[in-house]
Write a structure and sequence with these properties.
68% of the residues lie in helices and 4% in strands. The protein is mainly α.
Length: 230
């Protein structure tokens, strides 16, 4: 379990690109473990979809193309906004507390955790925001994209490293929750647009293969509307 957690944190820190091959010797040295627990950890993460075994080529990070990013980001956007529309105007206190608990975990990680830990906690915060609607099918759809969303979040954190540390990451999410609690639909929509979760589209996404006409059009539209990375 410890080997799996260490490996997962390393991958979600954003130091590996989707589709990148994992070299056992390098990982053993980085994590300070031997090959048997590393291989067991790789098997476990393959079941989650975070890594994939390629016959005769070894193991690589799950592959995400530019078109995948287009699909993931647009579906995430619509699911989050749909959930908030259904949740307002009367936010259930117990569901709000779930968001606050997720934010407290992010604060704890900012003190002593890693970037990889923060990606996982950030996902749980957004999952709790989606949960404000009390709509099981929206939640299950969002959860089904967990690993793909976390890979995009890892790429985004990588893109924001020069402008945001872990405390800044927490502050950005705390601001989102504060705006949600105002119950103002227009303010919430604006906060979602300015959240900074698409910073990686400025240049990091160009390192991914698999562009399509649909993803190219979407990327051009998004980039033209993105606010400065702050």
């Amino acid at each position: 379990m410890q080997a799996r957690q260490a490996l997962e944190r390393t991958i979600l820190a954003g130091d590996y690109l989707p589709g990148e091959r994992l070299v056992e010797e390098r990982l053993c040295a980085e994590l300070g473990i031997s090959r048997p627990p590393l291989r067991e950890a790789l098997k476990e993460l393959a079941h989650t979809g975070l890594v994939e075994h390629i016959p005769r080529k070894g193991v690589r990070i799950m592959s995400i193309t530019q078109h995948d990013v287009f699909e993931i980001a647009t579906l995430r956007r619509d699911l989050e906004r749909m959930a908030l529309r259904l949740a307002l105007p009367d936010l259930a206190p117990e569901r709000v507390e779930r968001c606050r608990a997720a934010l407290r975990e992010m604060e704890r990680i900012a003190e002593s955790g890693t970037e990889g830990d923060m990606v996982s906690a950030g996902f749980e915060f957004h999952f709790a925001v989606v949960g404000l609607a009390g709509h099981g099918r929206i939640e299950s759809t969002y959860r089904a994209m967990a690993m793909q969303l976390q890979m995009c979040m890892a790429l985004n954190n990588q893109a924001r490293r020069e402008i945001e540390d872990l405390d800044g990451n927490v502050a950005r999410h705390a601001r989102m929750l504060d705006v949600i609690l105002t119950g103002d639909p227009e303010a919430i929509e604006a906060e979602f647009d300015d959240h900074g979760n698409l910073s990686f589209l400025i240049d990091v996404v160009d390192r991914l293969d698999g562009a399509t006409p649909e993803s190219d059009r979407w990327l051009e539209e998004v980039r033209s509307a993105l606010p400065p990375a702050t």
